[in-house]
Amino acid sequence: MKDAGEKIDQSRKLSDAIRDVKNAFADRDDVVVDMREAHRMRLDLLAAELAPVFADVPADIDSFDFVVSSGLQPRLWIDAVSHVAMGRDRRTYRFLKDTRIGRVVLAESTEMKPVADAVTRYVAERIVERQRMMEGGVEPALAGIRRAEVAEAEPPLTSSQRGRGWSAFLSGLGLIAAGALVGLAVSAALFWDRVAALVLSWRP
């Protein structure tokens, strides 16, 4: 231990440590601010690229947002479930959509044009879906298009394939009938005594 009369080293002060910590926080905040500003600047450029598309949306459609939000992670919101954000490298545009099964990536590129094209396509699809629903078609346009594409891609069934299908159907019916008969037989065997007693009780 130090002697009571020994002087305390005055070179180590709490105020100096506090100043160092504040400087470290300031440096980190500068990095965060720089990242946020870089992200927002690129998203503003994308919004300017898409400005003609946003302007062409009919005025009676209010389901789109088309706004760049602030915060630690700036985003260009397209509607309530889709937005464009920047990747961690500050250069990759990521067009994302929130679905019931999680967030999916609709487009991703370091170039602005592919993502702008994907956003334009997305806006057009939403407008067409809305028009179809207003006209009485409750089915989303994309679902109908994809089902039609699948139907076109599948070859027509041959006569032998149709025959096999009928055979499988009839075999299934036969199995169901056989199961029903077995069930009746088992039930009769289990309750035969009760049925016989009931019959004897009705005899004069």
Name some characteristics of this structure.
204 residues, alpha+beta, 5 helices, 5-stranded antiparallel beta sheet, elongated
Structural summary, described in words:
With 204 residues, this protein is of the alpha+beta class. The chain is built from five helices and five strands; from the N terminus they run αβββββαααα. The chain has helices at 14-56, 112-134, 141-153, 159-190, 192-202; strands spanning 64-69, 75-79, 82-86, 93-99, 102-109. A five-stranded antiparallel beta sheet has the order 1-2-3-4-5. A hairpin with a 2-residue loop joins strand 4 and strand 5. Helix 1 (14-56) crosses helix 2. The termini are far apart.
List the helices and strands and how they pair.
Layout: H1 14-56, E1 64-69, E2 75-79, E3 82-86, E4 93-99, E5 102-109, H2 112-134, H3 141-153, H4 159-190, H5 192-202
Antiparallel strand pairs: 1-2, 2-3, 3-4, 4-5
Helix pairs in contact: 1-2
